[in-house]
Amino acid sequence: MTRIHPTAVIDPKASLDSSVEVGAYTVIGPDVVIGAGSKVGPHAVIEGHTTIGRDNSIFQFGSIGAVPQDKKYAGEPTRLEIGDRNTIREFVTLNLGTVQDGGVTRIGDDNWVMAYVHVAHDCQIGSNTTIANNATLAGHVHIGDWVLLGGFTTVHQFCRIGAHAMTAFTAAVSQDIPPFVTAAGNRAEPAGINSEGLRRRGFSSEQIMAIKRAYRTIYRAGLPLEEAMAALALEEAKTPDSAAYLKQMREFIASSTRGIIR
Hints:
- This protein is an alpha/beta fold.
- It is 18% helix and 26% strand.
- The chain contains four helices and 27 strands.
- It has helices at 195-200, 205-219, 225-238, 243-254, and strands at 9-10, 15-16, 21-22, 27-28, 32-34, 39-40, 45-46, 49-52, 57-58, 63-66, 79-82, 87-88, 93-95, 104-107, 112-113, 118-119, 124-125, 130-131, 136-137, 142-143, 148-149, 154-155, 160-161, 166-167, 172-173, 181-184, 189-193.
- The strands form three sheets. Strands 3-6-9-12-15-18-21-24-26-27 form a ten-stranded mixed β-sheet. Strands 1-4-7-10-13-16-19-22-25 form a nine-stranded parallel β-sheet, with no helix packed on it. An eight-stranded parallel β-sheet has the order 2-5-8-11-14-17-20-23, with no helix packed on it.
- α2 (205-219) packs antiparallel against α3 and α3 runs antiparallel to α4 (243-254).
- The chain is elongated.
- 42% of the residues are buried.
- The model has no long low-confidence stretch (mean pLDDT 97).
């Protein structure tokens, strides 16, 4: 217990691995579980039914596991689940889920969540994302793996952002963003694909070109969306090395309930 600052207030029912470090004046509630190697800075508050995995870094003044900012919330034992190796910077707020959805807000692994980010109830964030300063996610937002949200991005409730997508600084997202697509503006509009991000992650030139052609089919060919999806399905058959990525785009769009940015 020498890793716990003497001014920290930790409920005796909380479950912390012996290797967890806790800074001065931090408060940890009774239903909190924190895995090995995680570090919690000073003046943080971790409460609710919150489970935090291994090797996470939670910086000072974080509010982790507070009740949802939802008037329908009536004290139900909903949850926040955080995976492994996440960095959660200063003044980040992560809320519990609600029974109106799956009852859990979930953060995956290896995410980089920068200062003043807000993640509302029932959000589902994948792994390897970067969420820049002051980004705000309303309730029930789904973020895929490897997404990058620029600073001050705002995302409307129930929106989805597909894997490898990217938003520019101050983007205001009110509809779904398909995988690989870059969005910018208020309201957010398509602005090409995240080519540089794909290159950094090992996508081949051929795969990136196939995704660019798919983008042009959806956004630049002047086709109704239904016809664009049919054209995309034909393109999958012609490019077997990229077919999985084109299918990912097509299935994401087909399952959209809010519609995609166009």
